[in-house]
Every structure is written in structure tokens, then in C-alpha cells.
Amino acid sequence: MGGLTVGESAVITQLLTSEQSSFVKGAQMADAIARSEKISLTEAFAVIEAAISGGGLEPEADAIRLRHAKEIEEVAKVYAAAGQKNMSATVTALIRCRLGMSDWDLADTDQMPRALFNDIWQLAQDEQAAENQPTTSRPDEEMLGKPPAGNGKSKKPTGEPLVTT
User: Fold this and answer.
1) CB contact set of 48 (below 8 Å; sequence gap of 6+)
2) What pLDDT shows up at residue 34?
3) Closest listed residue to residue 68, CA positions, set 40, 29, 95
4) Which helix H or strand E contains 2, and what residues bound it?
5) What is this structure's pTM?
6) What does the alpha-carbon distance between residue 113 and residue 110 come to, in Å, rounded to a whole number?
7) Cα 55 from chain centroid?
8) In this model, does residue 139 exceed pLDDT 60?
9) Least C-beta-crowded within 10 Å: which of 48, 84, 96, 128?
10) 18 confidence band (pLDDT: 50, 70, 90)
């Protein structure tokens, strides 16, 4: 494990390029809510995000959520679909790249047994988590088994036999 390869990441990006960004959809809806409610775009987006994630809302924000429940539900559907599409693209990329099955596509992934899909998705998550691990410090000479650097006072080896008395 050590992360997704550049090629795997490129395949994922390529498979997702035709999708509208869920963030864009959320921002569009937040803009509409902000104008309707005469609040800032940031406040409107926070209401949407909290409503979708199930977070608690203050009474005024909850009232906004209720007034715009249909629109927020649309955004939630877009977020869910984007999440599923990302999962499918990631599993497809791993199959293509790691198994050398370049013709494997999203339709093939959609036909996989759920348990196998979930196992490959878990592998991808583990790989991505490995990418996010802090790197250890650079190895020093001792870790690499190199002798420590000299202080300049010792003789350089000459190839002459060592004479002891």
C-alpha cells in the first residue's frame, strides 16, 4: 500500500469529467436560496450542507431548510449520485490499471457483485489513506548503514598493509 498511482488517478478523472460538479449544483442552489431569503451565499450554503449531513440547525436556519426542502433534496440527490459515481470510477480505475483490463468500463463495474465492489472500494480507501499519512523523516547515515562522516583527521585508506607493533 502506498497510494493510488498517477495512472489510476488519471483514469478516475477521465471517468468523472462528464459529470456536473456536485459543488456547482450546491452553489447554484445556495445562490437561489440566498437571494430568496436575503442571506449571504455562505449562510445559504451552510444551511444546505448541514441539512444534507444531518447536522443540527438553529431555529432560523431550520426554517430556511423547511422552506427550501425540495431544492435541498435535489442537491442531496446530486451529492449522493456524485459519491456513487466517484466510487464506481475508482473501482473501475483499479481494475483497469492493476489487473491490466483496459477495456473494463463503468458498465462492467455496475454488473459486479456488491461484496466484490465493496472490497475493491475498501482497498482504494486504504490506498488513499496511505497517501495522507505523514512522511517519516529522511533516513540518516545510521539508518542506511553508512559509516558516519569522518572528522578529516583520520588517514585515507591507501591500500598499504597496516603495520602494527
Assistant:
1) 26, 29, 30, 33, 72, 75
2) 95
3) 29
4) none
5) 0.66
6) 8
7) 22
8) yes
9) 84
10) confident
